[in-house]
């Protein structure tokens, strides 16, 4: 969950998640004496009638049910627990595949090359349901984690005002894509596929939320959505601008980014400019964000 929104999550008692499979207790069994036995002679050694069987006690029945319940819970845990070793191999493949993206693109070919580099059979690529999308998602998650590490260290953004801090963090994040800039349009196309949109959207929301969190934002009302929608638009615009930027070290992109962040904090731009930024994220979001921003800037 996003760090700045986690405090608003409802609190659930810990007992809500301690699910245990319900196994009915087996009632005590009473075994009838054999039909062919007509004698009631007692056992000379035990002094008990051999035809009389004591029923199982309730305590032993309860103990048996507890053991069955624990055994069933253990089996369920094993089924739901992913194979850690197999996941490690997949991670190795994805990590190695990134080194082949510049030459082969965000493709199965890059993943095959990554598998061979990791010393694994290329057949492991078949274990990824969405293959190319898995590679892009892995890269996005890795970049987010690197950005979080930078934020937590505090070295890059200390002594900066919020607007400068946001511009700095967006620049750091976009610089992580610089080595793949020639292949990034392909990554954007993969992210735009209908089956990949939910994950892509969630990753971008997590990114802008981390940046706002680093800037000290603690809003919890409609401003939370407005700020993240606005920063998401700025990030997307700078990302697209970067694709066509031929200036040394993307100098023009950073100038464009700083200008947009300054405008966002200035709060003197027109509603039409805000609409333009919002529509850059996608036509489906434009109308919903427009209402938020109109209410925000009318205050």
Task: Name the features.
single chain; 299 residues; mainly alpha; 59% helix; 0% strand; mitochondrion; COQ9_C; Ubiquinone biosynthesis protein; transit peptide; lipid-binding
Q: What is this structure, in a nutshell?
A:
The chain has helices spanning 58-80, 84-97, 101-104, 108-117, 132-153, 162-175, 184-191, 197-214, 222-243, 251-266, 271-281, 283-297.
Summarize the topology.
Blueprint: H1 58-80, H2 84-97, H3 101-104, H4 108-117, H5 132-153, H6 162-175, H7 184-191, H8 197-214, H9 222-243, H10 251-266, H11 271-281, H12 283-297
Helix pairs in contact: 2-4, 5-8, 6-10, 8-9, 9-10, 9-11, 9-12, 11-12
Count the DSSP helices: 12
Anisotropy-based shape: globular
Order of helices and strands: HHHHHHHHHHHH
Helix % is 55-70%
If you average the pLDDT, what whole number results? 75
Strand content: under 5%
Give the end-to-end Cα distance, rounded to a whole number of Å: 30 Å
Computed over alpha carbons, the radius of gyration is: 31 Å
Structural class of the helix and strand makeup? Answer: mainly alpha
